[in-house]
Predict the structure.
Amino acid sequence: MSAYNKTTNLLRYTARYSLLLIAGVLLAFSLLSGSLDYGGNLMAIFKNSPNALPWFVLIMLIFIAWKREMLGGILIVIYGIGLVYFFNFSGPNFWWSTFVLTALIPVLGSLFVLSWYIRKHN
């Protein structure tokens, strides 16, 4: 296996699984954290599901990037920048942990684009 293949595989797998981990944890947190306000049962999780919509969308974008790296990577970068703005700068609250977590999304999305670029040009 050439050095370029190892590099592109490392970039691709890092982006895939890191984004899936971030999206999965945040999806579970957003589904479960507000469900106690609705009673804490399965129907409460369903009622609280709109809070998880951003993370459902991110998971869909990850699967697009899984099949078409450049397109999915660009979409993840754009969506990630939107998430950074929405969760950090659109309201009165700012937390460094939220900023770092959401800033990782466009960085990891750019790894898909970089992986595609290296593979395409070598």
Remarks:
- The chain has one domain: 3-120.
- The mean pLDDT is 90.
- Residues 3-33 form the longest helix (31 residues).
- The chain has five helices and no strands.
